[in-house]
Amino acid sequence: MDRGRARLHPATDRYVANGLQPNGDDRLFVAAVPDEAPSRVGPDATDSIAEALQYAGNDQFHLVVQLRSTPDGPMELWPAVRDPFEWTTQSALRVTVDVEPWGSLDRVDDEDRRKRLATANELVWTAVWSLTPNVEDLPDDVELVLDSRH
Fold it and tell me: Residues near 96 by Cβ (< 8 Å), separated by ≥ 6?
């Protein structure tokens, strides 16, 4: 992984086009996208998330990952410390992530943002990780392995 961007936000904020839907049943979303994927940028994406999907370095691709949680128990996920990315075949990537409590919403300095997070029905952790692959093709299949630590 070369770099990553992530943000906790209300589920009603559409950071990723065709990602997790507000009030949906899915807890997780993951997709591999090319190095420039402006069509994946949702209308409410922060500048850092939008930039990560619009511009990348050479020979990179992105993993777009989302995790649903609640204001009472906000969660985040990151690539596992040990061997997070494993090509199981030439076209299939297994990603092991650590899922952890995000912490108290009181730690958000911006009062308006803290209030929006606290009063939302659902929260979504949206991450964009930029990777340089060892192969020339995007994986056709991405398996996400959750390692919960709470």
Answer: 79, 80, 83, 84, 86, 145, 147
